[in-house]
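Attaching the record inline, Q. Sequence:
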Amino acid sequence: MQESNATELFEKAPVSQAVLKSALPAMAAMLMVLIYNLADTFFVGQTHDAYQVAAVSLAMPVFLMFMAVGTVFGMGGTSVISRALGQGRTDYAKKVCSFCMWGCVVVGVIMAALFLIFMEPILTMVGASEGTWAYAKSYLTIVSFGGPFVLISNAFSNIVRAEGKSAEAMMGQLLGNLLNVILDPIMILLLGWNITGAAIATLIGNIVGACYYILYFVRGKSSLSVSIKELSQPEKVCGPVCAIGIPAALGSVLMSVAQIIINSQLAKYGDMAVAGMGVAMKVVTITGMVCMGLGQGVQPLLGYCVGAKLWERFKEAFRFSMLFALSLGAVLTVICYLFTNQIVSAFLSDPAAYSYAVEFSRTLLTTSFLFGVFYVLINTLQAMGAATPALIINLSRQGIIFIPALFILQAVVGINGLIWAQPVADLLSIGLAAILYIRVSHKMMVQ
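Structure, as predicted:
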């Protein structure tokens, strides 16, 4: 029954319906991730302590490393599973799913242990100051214990979508993030636990989200499997998953590394600059997260078309997704730009931090209208199994282009150069992604 549902949506439904039915739940899930990300900073901001806001900004890119590694299994597994289902290889798809589940468990435990052991050097690396050190340490120590759960929740919100179950994929993130948002004001403000309360709420939310996905498979609601019995030939699964998953994850890893570098450089200008940048990133993330959901949502549809060699349907779905992405990105960017002051004021009351946040936000928003286009392009390449082009793009946007731009522009124009590096990297990376997509699609479709 599950396989016929996936076939009906991916192969037979009108393209616009297939795209929207695949993408809207993914976008809603990412919107909940956005709300969850905003909630910690918002409620910590209600303590009117800018040092705690700065500490959350310092800790967040380190915590996002867990989510980035979850992307290895999530995006890699989704690409391989959707193409396998398109080819009718259900047994292989089950093996991939099981590998991703147990990979999340093992790697999550190892990462949690490493974070706890090397907490002091990590805090030094991210630029924690005397005013933010204790707060950042408290937050990271608590959330590190949830490592395996963060990986599972992040990975399987994508993998469940590979079999056409977009609504079920959304529910895990929805439950976990909604619980986090409910617990934040209780633990941060009502109980007075401040940033420690934010970390506990985050930990509980991720545990609940992961348990939802585990129960989804245990109850037999999926054509896939997480049974350890399916791990009979992991060597045949690991390579294809990592070939797509690692390039996809590198983008997230480099994003975290880049944020760590920015924060360490901004720390030279004071903790209020760090707090301002943290909130500015929240503003631009409103567009970024929703557009990321669109890209992730259409990937299984495109991957199925690739596996089944339905090239006309693939091209039609790609065109519709690109037009939708550009329109969505433009609308969200305009809204964020018009209401920048109001959004920033919800997080910060310190005048210096507020001024930094508004200025930084408006700079970062100059290219955010193109986020949807970028994420559709990168997810399309991943759906096609184009590992090397996907790797090049992810290395470029947050690494090869972005990190050198940080130091070059800072040397030329000072603090503003740190902020303008991202729009410059965005434009160059989107152009590169378009060129690589044209080359890969032409080569694949003429075979």
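Residues 9 and 129 are 52 Å apart (CA to CA). The chain is about 85% helix and 0% strand.

More tomorrow.
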